[in-house]
UniProtKB/TrEMBL annotation:
Keywords: Metal-binding, Oxidoreductase. GO terms for cellular component: mitochondrion. SMART domains: malic (SM01274), Malic_M (SM00919). This is Malic enzyme. SUPFAM superfamilies: Aminoacid dehydrogenase-like, N-terminal domain, NAD(P)-binding Rossmann-fold domains.
Length: 543
């Protein structure tokens, strides 16, 4: 028997048909005589390309995913570089902002504060309880860099799960996009008659805490084989709920851990090239973070392992990192600091607040400048030039999403470093020609990590996601560059190899889970690496 995704309506939820294999041929007369599935692939692609705007392409692809999921995922796999920016960042940002306006039919699960006390009843309405393996859960409070989008944040859970299917072959019917509706503080949504969420301000912290405790408990009770990815919670809640549940349930926070892993990976590759140019050892890198939120501090914590891999002590590693937030350089003498910034706060600077990025660069003399601030073009011409003056090959990672919030463009980075930049951004930029050479931007986005990490967690049936599993995903990604990709100067592998990369990452993560003793699939322990890779490939769903 094969589960065939047949999205049709019934009582407001999508249902599945369980069909015998092979599916019955359509009845004579119901399709045109010359209909051919391969030709239809081309037709779908032409229809997609005929649309001018990203958001129109997004709407077309959403329709296709609902009507013909196999065709949607076939297109994704065959045209990964073209389609990823349409179903994910940057276009998914527009789709989320306008979610209540472009909405056509429900997808995923909405759990609201009104369901408190009866969350189990809501979860049990999910039509595919037994198949459920992975859920992306957001509360919509910090969607990409776009702020509090309330229930419109559902678009991000849907987009990430499409990448789980396309990128790691998770079965579509095993995914559950979830948006928690805890209100929104965005007035224009509260005033919008089309807004799909509750018309109330966000609930208080204690109310949210009680809700989250019930939600997590009931999720595990209802879906015993489920892995949970927290996505785009506002800063404090991102740290708080990761810490609260990470030892209790199989859960990870993509913005803290997934981003940390993907940036560590690209940084490892960039730092080698930078050190080769400067002649300075890897251990002497100095990293300046512009933005000290969940992503900035998540990446800083992960980059600690870069330095410890070079033989530095924890303390030496910590001292190689500087944070900047909206008040400027983060240092102890500045006054009260949010909990998550304290570890990296500097105690070696006592002067007045330092707020100009140029002054901070002059003071820190960083080898790498990483942007996770949501401040468009914060890396000005002068900032990029200052980095190029200190470093023969400056590392510039403007990682904020979507593309309109990027701290700088690839074109600007190439121009103002005379082609020497080692670059990765959160959303994709086009390649650049410089003095007759083609230069390729990296995409430092957690989409390289979470599909493989999630697949590993599902196959090894882990009880929790450990730091060593996250680090293994990162090193796995860094080591998956081919010689050809290295010769092109790439920091990340080409996205069209995503399934191969996810399989490799999954193998590394499963091994790390086994070492940590959090795996619950003992038969995988006996497999050689080659057998494990082949097992993983064989488990991947193919459209
Ligand atoms: N490339 C990737 O894979 C990922 C990218 N991101 C992006 O990173 C950005 C930040 O995300 P989070 O850390 O979760 O948000 P956040 O809201 O937790 O953090 C934002 C940080 O930027 C700082 N900031 C704001 N204005 C500033 C200014 N004028 N100067 C200096 N710093 C300023 C804030 O003080 C805060 O520390 C978002 O655009 C998000 O899309 C997040 C996760 C993954
Ligand atoms: C990529 C991602 O997770 C973000 O920008 O929030
Ligand atoms: Mg995110």
């Amino acid at each position: 028997m094969t589960i065939v995704l047949t999205p049709y309506w019934s009582n407001g939820v999508q249902k599945l048909k369980v069909a015998p294999q092979p599916p019955a041929a359509p009845k004579r007369g119901l399709i045109p005589a010359a209909f051919d599935r391969d030709v239809h692939t081309e037709r779908c692609l032409l229809q997609l390309r005929s649309k001018d705007k990203g958001i129109e392409k997004y709407i077309y692809l959403s329709y296709l995913k609902n009507e013909d999921p196999a065709m949607f995922y076939k297109l994704c796999l065959e045209h990964m570089a073209e389609i990823t920016p349409l179903i994910y960042t940057p276009t998914v940002g527009d789709a989320c902002v306008n979610f209540s306006h472009i909405f056509r039919r429900p997808e995923g699960l909405y759990v609201s504060i009104k369901d408190k006390g009866k969350i189990r009843d809501v979860l049990q309405n999910w039509p595919r309880i037994d198949e459920a393996r992975i859920s992306v859960v957001t509360d919509g409070s910090r969607i990409l860099g776009l702020g509090d989008l309330g229930v419109n944040g559902m678009g991000i859970s849907i987009g990430k799960l499409s990448l789980y299917v396309a990128g790691a072959g998770i079965r579509p019917e095993s995914t559950i996009p979830i948006c928690l509706d805890l209100g929104t503080n965005t007035q224009r949504y509260l005033d919008d008659p089309l807004y799909l969420g509750l018309r109330q301000k966000r609930v208080s912290d204690p109310e949210m805490e009680a809700f989250m405790d019930e939600f997590m408990h009931e999720m595990t009770a209802t879906f015993p084989k489920l892995m949970i990815q927290f996505e785009d919670f506002s800063t404090d809640n991102a740290f708080k709920y990761l810490e609260r549940y990470r030892k209790q349930y199989p859960v990870f926070n993509d913005d803290i851990q997934g981003t940390g892993a993907v940036v560590l990976s690209g940084f490892l590759n960039a730092a080698k090239l930078a050190s080769a140019a400067s002649g300075k050892p890897l251990s002497t890198h100095r990293i300046l973070f512009f933005g000290a939120g969940s992503a900035g501090v998540g990446v800083a914590s992960q980059l600690m392992s870069f330095f410890t891999l070079q033989g530095l002590s924890q303390e030496e590693a910590r001292r190689s990192i500087w944070l900047v937030d909206s008040q400027g350089l983060v240092y102890n003498a500045r006054g009260r600091l949010a909990e998550h910034k304290k570890y990296f706060s500097r105690n070696d600077y006592q002067g007045p607040p330092m707020t100009s990025l140029l002054d901070i660069i002059d003071y820190v003399r960083p080898t790498a400048l990483l942007g996770l601030s949501t401040i468009t073009n914060a890396f000005t011409t002068e900032v990029i030039e200052a980095m190029a003056l200190i470093n023969p090959r400056p590392i510039l990672f403007p990682l904020s999403n979507p593309v309109k919030l990027s701290e700088c463009s690839f074109a600007a980075a190439v121009e103002h470093t005379r082609g020497q930049v080692l670059f990765a951004s959160g959303s994709p930029f086009p390649e650049q020609e410089y003095q007759g050479k083609t230069l390729y931007p990296g995409q430092g986005n957690n989409m390289y990590i979470f599909p493989g990490l999630g697949l590993a967690a599902i196959l090894a049936r882990v009880s929790q996601v450990t730091d060593t599993m996250v680090e293994a995903s990162s090193l796995g990604l860094a080591n998956s560059l081919t010689d050809e990709e290295r010769s092109l100067g790439l920091l990340y592998p080409q996205v069209n190899r995503i399934r191969e990369i996810s399989a490799f990452i999954a193998k590394e993560v499963i091994r790390a889970a086994q070492k940590s003793g959090v795996d619950r699939s003992p038969d995988l322990r006996n497999k050689s690496d080659a057998e494990l890779i082949s097992f993983i490939n064989q488990k991947m769903w193919k459209p």
